[in-house]
Backbone:
């Protein structure tokens, strides 16, 4: 799947992980990231409400929602 609206050969991958343990973070100076912990159903609703707009994230969340029958 290409996640750009122009001509590209870019490929995006999404992974589902469960039962993770939080560890230390080590962001680079140029990274401006926020980590959110929320139930999957809330992230799914955020996509439907237009609050999550990154195309790869949207597709992954909606596909998993369908698989889980949310």
Residues:
């Amino acid at each position: 799947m290409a996640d750009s609206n122009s001509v590209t050969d870019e490929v995006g991958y999404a992974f589902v992980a469960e039962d993770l343990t939080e560890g230390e973070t080590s962001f680079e100076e140029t990274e401006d990231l926020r980590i959110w912990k929320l139930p999957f159903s809330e992230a799914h609703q955020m996509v439907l409400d237009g609050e999550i707009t990154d195309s790869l994230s949207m597709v992954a969340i909606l596909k998993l929602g369908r698989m889980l029958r949310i």
The helical segments are 40-48, 55-68. Residues 55-68 form the longest helix (14 residues).
